[in-house]
Design goal:
five-stranded antiparallel beta sheet; three-stranded mixed beta sheet
Length: 239
């Protein structure tokens, strides 16, 4: 356990432990190839593809009522224009392969200009001065250019759920069903849980005011339910 990624968040490892298991699902995202390597499986390599977004104020959200796609290209479905749950306009993502030096040399200004130029072809009238936030994430693209959902060739009870790039979120229920099937095929007894509730409670609740919420530098607000980590939409630490 630790305080975050050592590479990204300057995290500190506070404890190490050994875990033994009869079955393993390798769903380690960007580290899935490294986890596979631990059992001598070198059948794929993860090649991160970065996606950058721009978030605009709610006063721009009326410009579209649906998700607008361009024609897809060799890197994916393209740069989109869509509204968020809260009514903001969101632009993106890019598709920047992190293993290419010229991609990693791109400046924030170049990335933002690229997103704005692509999205203006879909919605010409948005106001770029209303951008309130920029953020990015990385998709776990694999050297196979496809999702890898299968037992490892090195051990039948080591099952990969790797290389799950877009649209992995939409596909996650079906991926889960397939993983259950693979676990059963590998010999795991999975009796149904009679107490399972398929209806998940909301994680984030839209808020109209700051009542009961606080924001400040790291460590100032101790209550996770009150500590706002996203001021734009008042998302708390506990959420």
């Amino acid at each position: 356990g630790g305080s975050g990624s050592a590479d990204i968040h300057d995290g500190v490892t506070v404890e190490m432990e050994t875990v033994r298991a009869r079955y393993i699902i390798n769903c380690a995202g960007m580290g899935a190839d490294k986890i596979a390597n631990l059992i001598g499986d070198f059948s794929f390599k993860i090649k991160p593809r970065i996606g950058d977004y721009l978030l605009l104020n709610r006063n721009q959200g009326h410009l579209t009522k649906c998700t607008l796609f361009p024609c897809p290209g060799p890197l994916g479905k393209g740069v989109l224009v869509q509204t968020t749950l809260w009514g903001n306009l969101i632009l993106g993502p890019t598709a920047r392969d992190a293993h290419l030096p010229e991609v990693m040399a791109e400046t924030p200004e170049q990335i933002q200009a690229f997103i704005l130029s692509k999205c203006r072809k879909l919605v010409p009238g948005f106001d770029a001065k209303e951008v309130i936030h920029a953020f990015s994430g990385a998709r776990a693209k694999s050297s196979r250019n496809d999702w890898i959902i299968e037992p490892s060739e090195k051990h039948p009870r080591f099952i990969h759920a790797a290389g799950i790039d877009s649209p992995g979120l939409a596909g996650s229920p079906a991926i889960a069903v397939e993983l259950v099937r693979l676990l059963r095929a590998a010999g795991l007894d999975l009796p149904p849980n009679p107490h399972f509730n398929p209806h998940r409670a909301r994680i984030i609740r839209p808020k109209d005011s700051w009542k009961g919420l606080r924001a400040g530098p790291p460590g100032k607000v101790q209550n996770p339910s009150e500590n706002v980590v996203c001021k734009c939409e008042k998302v708390t630490e506990s959420e």
